[in-house]
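As promised in the previous annual report, we have extended the structural survey to additional targets. Below is the entry for Putative HTH-type transcriptional regulator.
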Amino acid sequence: MKVNIDIDDQYEETSITIQTQKWTDELEEIIRYINNKKQARLFGVDADQTIILNPKEIDYIYAEKRKIFAALHNQRIEIKMKLYEIEELLLPQHFMRFSKSVIGNLNNIQCFELSFNGNLCVYFHSGNKEYITRKYATSIKKKLATGGDFYDR
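The corresponding structure token record, generated without further manual editing, is:
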């Protein structure tokens, strides 16, 4: 991929032009990243307090009994959003779908191993673990092999 940047006082606002032969997943990620350039913030509820959550500290987010929780180290904090809304918000922060009810932070993965049923068991640096279903395992392994998102290189 070739990148050209032209900085000049004649331009009133920033404009981006992409020239390509076909639409790719990489272009989809670029557009998503540009549209979500602001830092994502999540608000969790613990007891009667509202807590600002840093996405980098979250290992995974999961749905259980019609509620959404963020797993951070040894804490479980409820989030008052839908899982698909959180997934969309955190996509630029290296989160991917692990299963129908879990999205995880790829940057916090320490290692993973294959389970007997074809799922992957993921271990996080914090000691937490979660499972990736076969449906999502290939795309996650591909993303991990390429070093995460392209704009971090």
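The two ends are 13 Å apart (CA to CA). Residues 39-146 form a domain with the OB fold (Dihydrolipoamide Acetyltransferase, E2P) fold (CATH 2.40.50.1020). These points will be discussed at the next consortium meeting with the crystallography subgroup.
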